Amino acid sequence: MNKFGLMAAGAAIIFGSAVYAEEIRVEMNKIDETGIAESIGSVVAADTAAGLKLTPDLRGLPPGPHGFHVHEFPDCGAKEKDGKPVAGLAAGNHFDPKKTGKHAGPVGDGHAGDLPVLNVASDGTAQEAVTAKRLRVADLKGRSLMIHAEDDNYADKPGGARIACGVVK
Asked: Angle at Cα 132 formed by Cα 20 and Cα 144, nearest 5°?
């Protein structure tokens, strides 16, 4: 332990009695009903004392607020629903380890995969970090990050169509 109370421990940093995992980078791609398309950048996820900090470095998105979620499966591919291919449907539903069945926002008592809204600037870039208080990096492993076409009101409008996705390995 150094004079600041920090000690490197494999893939973690120990500060006092709290342990924070190193950050991970999730490569993000546009998606559509034909599958996975071009890269739009990445999102860095890191454990902090306040929860999981997600820092996007994205481009080529429609400006405005977008629903942003952790989905249950590590697959960004299209999947058929009602006889038609749907973008990103192979990622499954929102990550909901407690089986709440509720869409209640990032601090509510519903899906743990509900993240704060992703804000995209007028030039199509997103670089504003968001923090998910109920999640850690370990919760992301074997799942996917999903960006939706529209805003998310955490009730009856979870963001519309799926437009970008990244698999967390």
From this structure: 90
